[in-house]
């Protein structure tokens, strides 16, 4: 789920290292929701993003806000510290080993696609991803809130002068990006073990996506994130052994040919 | 320039104190922990050459540290190569890797640079993971002994510690000489204002690449010392948490200073060790992460940087 990361970076110029941790938290909310309150999977899809998004909002208001205006590297470093804290806190609370999360009812069968068995749940994930992409794009490009967010990133001073509370917009955007990560976590829960380290791999992949897509253009990052997500989902089925390295090789190639990324502009690369 | 510490008499005093601490360190803590501290100190100094003096944040430095560690231990354990040859090969590997990675990464700056180095380090991580026959996968590569150097055994931890210390001191001295040289001045100029450095006719990419290779090679040296000191190399050496660890050490100590990262590494490693003895066990990252978060929020100059600022010497770069 590179989408949330792209939204946060594109809008706020913060690289959220903790994105993977938020992803993991989302999965854990779903897991504990099921274990303690019998929260069904489909409800978790809504609850977990809300809970984790709220947490993200707190983080933004309490800490990240102090780092704006400094080199964006400090945002990255702070969120890295956050990863360490959250991961080890969860390890302390839940143990290092993962717990399986049952497949949601109605989607635990496979069908054949291009002569290869393809789990229905993966299809569901792809479907949800498409819907989320469209919703994010729509909110950002076609609604008044989206227009304000875009304006606030391009000319924050001017937007503030027009009487719009940019701080609140920023918090909101950050929380929304984090909520997307949590949604990704819930979606991933039935595919893999719910464990404290599950966010690690995802964050590296999203960074690669970010480099490939080239940020600065919202549409570009959404398209790239989604295309690569699809590529990886398919890749996991077709050649699992090389799936992990595929994306990095792609990244290197893109860097050599187009240093500013596929959809990035030269100015955004600086 | 922020290297005020180095030339002054005060700098000599600080260096003397650090050396004194280093000399008695095996008496204060376990010798192997002392080896770890000194190896990490060299790693942090190498890293700071890039972040503090050149202004490039690499988030993948574990690839040199852990990669060189793998090469040396694999050569010694599986191919029975002698200690000095294995070490030289490992350092050559780190240098070559740094050349390739540097050539790719310096095409971008700032956050992108950090992310590219991170991604490339992860690429090596996945290779190390896949090549379990050689790297031992999760178990790592274990050495039966440290081997011999010029006919001298290296098994005594205290003796090996002093060998490590000598190498680390040499490496640090090299970095000090480098940042004080005209070459170091160009690096500083690039960090402060890259456009102007270009306008002055410096080929910044070449300078960046040299700095990157130097830094990566020294990180490799440190990684080899660490691995052979512990008689073990493993996946956690190439993991991105290790890259993060060296970032934390450098920033905790104070970037843009030579002695900051050394102090940072010492404080970090010993704190980490003592926290691991408390009730939370190996979840030390809760504490280390919190300290680092506070460091980023409140005192970005790091410990040595803040001390410098307090004493009214030249302002350290935050």
Architecture overview:
The complex is a heterodimer of chains A (about 270) and B (about 325). Chain A has about 270 residues and is mostly helical. Chain A is built from eleven helices and two strands. Chain A has helices spanning about 1-10, 20-35, 40-60, 70-95, 120-140, 145-155, 155-160, 165-190, 200-215, 220-240, 245-255; strands spanning about 110-115, 115-120. In chain A, α1 (about 1-10) runs antiparallel to α8, α2 packs across α8 and α10 runs antiparallel to α11. Chain A is globular and about 55 Å long. Chain A starts with a helix and ends in a 13-residue tail after the last helix. The model of chain A is unreliable at about 265-270 (pLDDT under 50). With about 325 residues, chain B is an all-alpha fold. In chain B, α3 (about 30-55) runs parallel beside α8, α5 packs antiparallel against α11 and α13 (about 240-255) runs parallel beside α16. Chain B is globular and about 55 Å long. Chain B starts with a helix and ends in an 8-residue tail after the last helix. Mean pLDDT of chain B is about 80; it is low at about 1-5 and about 315-318. The chains are: A mainly alpha (about 270), B mainly alpha (about 325).
What does the radius of gyration of chain B come to? 19 Å
Residue share in β-strands of chain B: under 5%
Identify low-pLDDT runs of chain B.
1-7, 313-318
Category by helix and strand content of chain B: mainly alpha
Number of helices of chain A: 11
N/C terminus separation of chain A: 25 Å
Using only C-alpha atoms, the radius of gyration of chain A works out to 18 Å
Query: What overall form of chain A do the CA principal axes indicate?
Result: globular
H/E element string of chain A?
HHHHEEHHHHHHH
Helix content of chain B: over 70%
Total strands of chain B: the figure is: 4
Write out the strand line-up for the largest beta sheet of chain A, numbering strands in chain order: 1-2
* Main β-sheet description of chain B: 2 strands, antiparallel
Structural class of chain A: mainly alpha
Unreliable spans of chain A are: 266-270
Largest interface: A-B, 41 and 39 residues
